[in-house]
Design goal:
Length: 176
């Protein structure tokens, strides 16, 4: 059984992550699209492995590589929606997303790795392109999570990139 992650990861906006090594506060907003694309490319390489190996959990309470990849794919998709909300609405409240419930409901572990690879790549490209199109005057627009965390588009870009980078570290053990 997977133990839900209930940590508030917004601290990554204040200091480097001791686990994955990403110095999120130092990430320039202009670098995020390229980082998204590079991260997606690494996931595509991982998803080319044997499907049964991708489904194997290292421990019963830890997601498999495929489950992590499905999560990253969905992060790219959800953050694209949230970015659009921030750019088109004043101070939107983001709909809740329970990543653990989604993993079970969508049967992450049973998905086809080849399809996940295509969807992850598409989601990454859409999100990277969306960040490239943010105009100078839009970087300070805000959006709120239901737990009260407030982001600007700029802090949101840095917060976002930590997630797939950290999960790549979870799978590979390789730090930035």
């Amino acid at each position: 059984m997977i133990i839900p992650d209930t940590k508030d990861w917004t601290w990554v906006l204040e200091r480097p992550c001791a686990d994955c090594g990403l110095d999120t506060p130092a990430v320039a907003r202009e670098a995020v699209p390229g980082m998204i694309r590079a991260n997606a490319a690494a996931w595509l390489g991982l998803l080319a492995a044997d499907p049964e190996e991708l489904r194997r959990r290292p421990e019963p309470q830890t997601w498999s590589d495929l489950e992590y990849a499905c999560h990253v794919r969905d992060v790219f998709r959800i953050f694209a929606v949230r970015l659009d909300l921030m750019l088109t609405q004043d101070g939107p409240l983001f709909p809740n997303w329970d990543q653990d419930t989604t993993a079970v409901a969508e049967r992450y572990r049973e998905q086809d790795p080849a399809r996940v690879a295509v969807e992850l790549a598409d989601g990454a490209e859409a999100l990277a392109t969306a960040f490239e199109q943010v105009a100078d005057g839009q970087w300070q627009r805000t959006g709120d999570r239901s737990d009260g965390a407030r982001f600007t588009v700029e802090s949101f870009s840095r917060y976002l990139i930590h997630d797939p980078v950290h999960h790549l570290y979870d799978v590979t053990g390789e730090r930035l």
